[in-house]
Request: fold
Amino acid sequence: MRFELNDGNFRILDGKSSKLLDTIPVDSRYQKVFKTEQIGQFLLIVIKNEEEEYEGVVYDLNLRRVLLKNLSKQIHVHMCNFESVSPQNLFLVFDAGKGFVRTKYVFDLSKSKFHVFDDMRIELQWIAPRTFIFYATPKEGETDLPIRKDDTILEEKRIWRNGTIHRTKTTRYTYQD
Reply:
């Protein structure tokens, strides 16, 4: 695929034939495509202008329609990567941050709602269509274990199932970055 941004229109073109596949209207103040990332049928498009303002949309290539627009009002699109799509295409995951500590934005396609996870460690792991495992550092008072040991930090395994977080007794210490 190829992409063009002209006069307030983001154009998706076939990479081989240059045939126009679709046009997405965007605010004309955006002049450059900052990045595009595709996972399966979903395409993240981030555009920018000369003032370093960014805007993002998520487009479904199969349905040929915009699923999410005005992403900059909900997440830091210029810092985010499109990390994963859940089994059965129920959730989209965007990742922001550096090193081990990340902010994850999990978008529920059926409810058009973001779930935000600050300070998530590394990446989440899907284990079912509506369930994933992740590690987080417990807050003071949530555990009797020391949060820090020398240059390591405590992480607790947690399970997110359909919007609810379940804590587990599984813990580990990892080196801080």
